[in-house]
Amino acid sequence: MKLKYKAAALLTIALLVIIGMFLQNSFKNFNIHEKFTPIPLSFDPYSSMSSFDWNGTSIQISGGFVKGKIEDDNKNENLVLRSLSPEMSITVKGSPNEDKTCYIRLENINPFNIAAVNSTVDKQSVLDPHTVLLVLNLKRSEERIIRMVPNLKNTDYSEFVILGDNRNGYRTFSQIIDQINAINPVFTIDNGDLVFGGEPNKYRLFYETVSKLQTPLFTTIGNHDIRENGRPVYTKLFGPPYYSFDYGNNHFVFLDSSRGWAEKKAIPEEQYGWLENDLKNSGTKRIYVISHIPPTDPRDDTEPNK
Asked: Where are the beta strands (DSSP E) in the chain?
């Protein structure tokens, strides 16, 4: 009997170790898809452009960034682009050495509320509520420009929703997403603290929760999001920490103030330089500045961020 109890105890310990290893691996790693390979972020906030050499084919997106590559069910390599604006432009130039069929996934859009304007896409299909697949049959050195804009009957329609600090409140956050879907705005803004801590498994939960959101989601980064080395995870999923876009007569600026609780200088000089240049170029547009941490903290026991 003692041997039976000992064997059962050893088996239980072994199972706990295996489960613990599985949970630890899940805790440390979050891949968007098992066949997804992220591409290091290359984004110029001054021009809002991201470029990539895709085996001789040149890809450039204005109003978004090149996120990664994924293999589809037919073994075709798809390039994943993520929008950072309600409107974007994609320039594709074919390889000088060969004809090529390009499969481009454009995510963070509303596929049922966006259209390609004055462009030649050979095939366009909806992959999910946030993504379209663009297929281009390119000849050698052929260049195509794809401009994507919201397909709105009322061109003055500019309703958007802004929220933030959802962190661990997933039950309430899920209800808010349902309310946003009912409103059906052009886009939604989350101004930071997407997660309570930056561990990959917490970003996984946020990513899965917002998957039912039926509008584009534009984010900025909060102090909770960079905890536990969360900045690289945020970058892989949502791109640059600061950027801007125009929509109609409005100019939206997204700042990275995430350092504000750990450091008194919430926004570095490099970002201030970009911000000054960006605002100068905004013209007469109505300006919205999105920042997680305000310029001045209203609480009595703190000093203003500098």
From this structure: 36-38, 49-54, 57-62, 64-71, 77-83, 88-93, 100-107, 114-117, 123-128, 131-138, 143-150, 160-163, 187-190, 217-219, 243-247, 250-254, 286-290
